[in-house]
Structure formats: structure tokens, C-alpha cells
Amino acid sequence: MDKFNKLAAIAAPIMRQNIDTDMVIRIERLRDLPPEKLGPYAFESWRYKPDGSEAPEFVLNRPPYRDARIILAADNFGCGSSREAAVWSLHAFGIRSVIAPSFGPIFYNNCFQNGVLPITLPLETIEEMVAEVEASQGTGKLAIDLEACTVTTPSGKVTSFKIDPLRREALLSGLDQIEQTRGREKELATFEAKDRQQFPWLYQTA
């Protein structure tokens, strides 16, 4: 998993509520494509016209937002089906963080397993960030510091966010849950040895 420490990047506002995982990546794209090839199909229904040409009105098709690495969104981003490929497609497109007031719970969990940082902030704060970004015509960058748990706007306003310590550690180190567990094998072995002594009947074999 890619590490996440600090990121200064263009942020694209997609301020629509209830953007579900089917809108992020259509299910028919998952049949033949590996995760790293899904980037061109992220938000496909919005990015392309029926004839396959780009829809110029969609934010990710307009410069400089087509180079965005951060998405600013409204409530309940990533709701709907438990489709990990939604995160895969965003990561393959180049998105490393989504900032929204709330997320679909499964999508939120999947982000941490795939090197994408979901940040929860109040809608009013996000709207202020959008206003700054749009005032700069998209060239003003947001700066995310995962070590300090802060987001800094183009004007220098700093906003703190909260994140589970273990999930923060996972992104900083680039380790998923399985790799984190393997890194604590000595602790687990020590616990098991002590537990065997205290509760030997739990470890009896037939």
C-alpha cells in the first residue's frame, strides 16, 4: 500500500450528496480490468458523453482540476454497495484523499486499505475550502499533513481533523491491517505463551 504523509495538491469540488460507489465506478468495468487500470473509468457516467467524448462541464475534465489529487465532496460520499473497486478507481485516477462531511462506512474502511485518506470535516468548512479553490480558479492547492492531522487552504487557514490512531499509523507506514498484524508477531507470541499457561484447557488438542 502506498504511504501517505503529506500532500499538497489541486482539489476538485464535487459537491453532490450521496455519491454512491456505482457512480464512482460502474460494475461492468470490474469484469475485465485489474485495479490499476480503472482510473479512466472513475466517474465514467459524468466524465463522458454517450459517444465516448469528454463532457466538458464535469469538473475533472476541466484544467487544472483534471490533475486533482484531492476531492472535496458533500455528505455521504461512497454510499451504496460494498464495492472496493470504487477506491481502486479513485487511486488509479490519482486521487489520494477525499474530504467530506460523512462517508459510506464500507467505502471509508476500504480507503485505509488502499492508500486513500478519507477526511471528515463539517460541510461549512468544506464549502469555505471550495470557495477558496474556486477563487483561485483551481490553481490554489490544499496541503494535507497526516502527521499533524491538518488541512491548510491556499490562504493559509489551518483546519485540524481527527482520525483513528491505528488507521493513521497504517497510512503513514504504508501497511494494511494484515501487514500491521504481522509486524506484531512477537507481541502476539508473548501473549499466546502467557495465555497458554493461564488457560491451558483452551489449547488442548484431540
Describe the structure.
The structure is a single chain. A 7-stranded mixed β-sheet has the order 4-3-2-1-5-6-7. The model has no long low-confidence stretch (mean pLDDT 92). 33% of the residues lie in helices and 16% in strands. It is α/β, with parallel strands linked by helices. It has helices at 21-24, 44-47, 85-93, 105-112, 123-135, 165-173, 177-182, 185-198; strands spanning 6-14, 70-73, 97-100, 117-120, 141-145, 150-152, 158-160. The termini are far apart. Helix 3 links the parallel strand 2 (70-73) and strand 3 (97-100). The chain has one domain (6-175): Aconitase, domain 4. The chain has 8 helices and 7 strands. The protein is globular, with a radius of gyration of 20 Å.
What class would the helix/strand composition place it in? alpha/beta
Assign the CATH superfamily. Aconitase, domain 4
Query: Which of globular, elongated, flat, extended, rod-shaped describes the shape?
Result: globular
Low-confidence segments, given as residue ranges, are: none
Write the CATH fold name: Aconitase, domain 4
Strand and helix order = EHHEHEHEHEEEHHH
Report the oligomer.
single chain
Total count of helical runs of at least 4 residues: 8
Number of domains: 1
Strand percent estimate: 15-25%
Bin the helical content: 25-40%
Question: Could you name the key traits of this structure?
Answer:
206 residues, alpha/beta, Aconitase, domain 4, 33% helix, 7-stranded mixed beta sheet, 8 helices, single chain, globular, 16% strand
